[in-house]
Amino acid sequence: MKTKTILLAGSVLGAFAVSGVALVAVTHEAVTDRIADNQYQAMQRKLTAILPAGASDNDPLRDHIEVEAKSLLGTDTTQVYRVRHGQDPVAVVLEPVVPNGYAGPIRLLVSVMHDGTLGGVRVLSHHETPGLGDKIEELKSDWVYGFKGKSLNDPPLDRWGVKRDGGAFDQFTGATITPRSVVNAVKNTLIYVQEQGDRLFEQAAETPKHIAGGQG
C-alpha cells in the first residue's frame, strides 16, 4: 500500500512537472513572438518616418541584405533595407554605427533616396549625457531633422561638419563631440551608398530575421 502511495505521488508530481514545463514553453514562445512583433512594428514606424509617404510597395524589413564596410559604416556588418516601387529602386535605409560618440557607440537609422539625398536620420540607441549629447534624440530636440534633404552636394563635402569646425551643421551648447560624430557618420553613409549605387539592390534578399529596435 505504501509503495502504491509513493508511486501515485510520484506520478502526480511528474505530471505537474511536465505540465509546468509545457506551460512555461508555450508562454515563452507567445511572449517572444509578441516582443518580436512589437519590435517589428516599431521599426516599421521608424522607417515610415524617414521615407516619403507612399514611396514604396515592398516591405523593406523583409527585403534586406547585410554588408561589410566598417571604415565607413562603423561596424563589422550593417543591415541595409531596400525600398522599391515595383522593380524601381526608391531608397536604401542603413543602420550605421557611430563608434566614437562621447559616451559610447550610437546606432543610427539613415535613409538615402535613389537620387542621393537623405530621406531622414533617426537614432536607434545611444548612451550620451542627458541634457547634452542626448539632444540627438528626436524626443529631446529637432536637431536630427536637419539632415532631411541634404546630400554630398548640399552642403558641399567640405562643409559636412559642425559650425564650430567650419561646417554647416549646428552643435549643442556644451556638447560638440556627439553632433560632430553623428554628422561624420551620416556623411560616411552617403559616401558608401554613392560608391555602391544600384549594386545594393542587386544582391539577393536575406531570409527575414528578428528586427531589433531601440531607444531614440
Automatic annotation (TrEMBL):
Q: Which PANTHER family match?
A: ION-TRANSLOCATING OXIDOREDUCTASE COMPLEX SUBUNIT G
Which gene codes for it? rsxG
* Cofactors named for this entry: FMN
Q: Which family does it belong to?
A: Belongs to the RnfG family.
Q: Where is the signal peptide?
A: 1-24
InterPro entries assigned: FMN-bd (IPR007329), Ion_transpt_RnfG/RsxG (IPR010209)
Query: Which species?
Result: Thiorhodococcus fuscus
Q: How does it assemble?
A: The complex is composed of six subunits: RnfA, RnfB, RnfC, RnfD, RnfE and RnfG.
Bilayer topology reads: Single-pass membrane protein
Which compartments does it reside in? Answer: Cell inner membrane
Provide the protein name. Ion-translocating oxidoreductase complex subunit G
Q: Does the keyword Transit peptide apply?
A: no
Would the keyword Electron transport be found if you checked this record's keyword annotation?
yes
- Tell me the lineage of the source organism: Bacteria, Pseudomonadati, Pseudomonadota, Gammaproteobacteria, Chromatiales
Q: What is its EC number?
A: 7.-.-.-
Tell me, in a sentence or two, what this protein's role is: Part of a membrane-bound complex that couples electron transfer with translocation of ions across the membrane.
Q: Which residues form the FMN-binding domain?
A: 101-193
Pfam families attached here? Answer: FMN_bind
